[in-house]
Amino acid sequence: MCKALSNLFGSEAEEYCLLECMSYLMIFMAAVTFLVLLFENVPYGRYATSKYGFPVNARFAWFVQELPALVVPVLLLLTASSARASYLPNQLLLAMYLLHYFQRSLIYPFLIRGGKPTPFLSFVMAFLFCVYNGYLQGRYLSHFAKYPADWIMHPCFIIGFLMWLLGVLINVHSDHILRNLRKPEETGYKIPQGGLFEYVSGANFLGEIVEWAGFAVATCSLQSAAFAIFTSVVLSSRAVSHHGWYLQKFEDYPKSRKALVPFLL
Description:
By secondary structure, the protein is mostly helical. It contains eight helices and two strands. It has a two-stranded antiparallel sheet. The chain starts with a helix and ends in a 16-residue tail after the last helix. The mean pLDDT is about 90.
């Protein structure tokens, strides 16, 4: 793969320029997405609709669409000729990124219980985004990112890592709560209880936002910041939509519960 990249670009400077352009494009995409989501929900899960294409099995969709975010960086790492890939800071940051997508593509889909099918267009867009972001994050960290040898002791790395770890724990625990809301023979929606769901409707979304914000702080890069911004836009919109949906569907929904940020929003 790296040989193909070398043939594609005239120099490393050209490829690095591409990575920066891709980052700015992702930030632009986040701005456009923010405007679109003011009028339309991301069409999957409870907001799925046939106008976005035929339904794709939820487990299959999550597995396939998230897999490139894991596979692309791994291929780049295994075929990288740069010494950067052997540096401890780069390896730890890559491991943080890959651990999320290992869980999201190889574990999470097979734990889904009766998830609603994903419209084909949403499935394709998620797949393409994971290819795009997998290359962006993986290539930058395995080939271009430069950190001092003691970066893992730097306050940015320590604070970012702790944020990332907290986000992972919140996200995984919240997903566990959602999966176990219904008994095997039950259908329909229930009010989430426990964990951060006592304070916000989108506890799982809050966890992932904190996770990628921490990753951005730990890496201190344009590439990770762009990803954190895009993720925050999409997931905060979904949390607000979920909150409104719960309030409309359940008369006894806790009125003190916020959408995304405990006690504030």
